[in-house]
Amino acid sequence: MLRFASVAAITAMLMVPAVAHDFTVGALKIGHPWARATPKGASIGGGYMTVTNTGTTPDRLVSGASVVSKSFEVHEMSMDNGVMKMRMLPKGLEIKPGETVTFKPGGYHVMFIGLDHQLMQGQRFKATLQFEHAGKVDVDFVVEGLGAMKADSPAHDDMPGMKIK
Ligand SMILES: [Cu+2]
Q1: So what's the pLDDT on residue 1?
Q2: According to the model, what pLDDT value does residue 38 have?
Q3: What homologous superfamily is domain 21-149 in, according to CATH?
Q4: What span, in angstroms and rounded, lies between the C-alpha atoms of 76 and 45?
Q5: Mean pLDDT of the chain
Q6: What spacing in Å lies between the alpha carbon of 124 and ligand 1's midpoint?
Q7: Per residue in 102-123, pLDDT tens?
Q8: What is the pTM of this model?
Q9: How far apart are CA 23 and CA 25, in angstroms?
Q10: Under a CB-based contact definition with an 8 Å cutoff, are residues 15 and 157 in contact?
Q11: If you measure from the C-alpha of residue 6 to the centroid of ligand 1, how many angstroms do you get, rounded to a whole number?
Q12: What is the pLDDT of residues 121-156, one digit of tens each?
């Protein structure tokens, strides 16, 4: 009896349709926004996602805001005298027509500056992305593990994560 029940439970879990964690504004599609868990006391955190421009004209991620931080910046990582450095992009980042830009650790990313609490794996929080032409869009960031390199926790499939706000 037990054996049958556990097989049924596993099958049922596999049957749960993965609800896409994508957002759309104008011709832009934002895929799987995620953030890394932060160490205790950290005041900054990184955010990642993909942005696809399905339109025929360029657009630009120029700024944003989040419910977990005082400010939000768009950054790039670049080599400077053999040292990997991050730099704020004052004019934001262009998304060319037909292009997908991947924000990922070690590359382009957004920064949550002035965190008001520690980000913990499995949490989700609201942020607003501001694009030059498409305008504003509210998204949910899912918090992955400390040092995560990509978004792969169950919370990402909209299973019940601990919503911060
Ligand atoms: Cu940065």
Answers
A1: 52
A2: 96
A3: PCu(A)C copper chaperone (2.60.40.1890)
A4: 14
A5: 87
A6: 20
A7: 999 999 999 999 999 999 999 9
A8: 0.80
A9: 7
A10: no
A11: 45
A12: 999 999 999 999 999 999 999 999 998 888 866 555
Measure 98 CA to ligand 1 centroid, in angstroms: 26
The pair of structure tokens assigned to 35 is 């953030």
Structural contact between residues 29 and 138, judged by C-beta atoms closer than 8 angstroms: no
Q: How many A from CA of 160 to the centre of ligand 1?
A: 29
Report yes or no: 72 and 127 within 8 Å, Cβ to Cβ: yes
Under 8 Å between Cβ of 128 and 136: yes
Cα separation, 15 vs 161, whole angstroms? 19
Going by C-beta distance under 8 Å and a sequence separation of 6 or more, which residues neighbour residue 67? 125, 126, 127, 164, 165
| Residue 150 pLDDT | 81
Cα(11) to ligand 1 centroid in Å equals 41
Tokens of 132: 């030059």
Contact 116, 124 (CB under 8 A): no
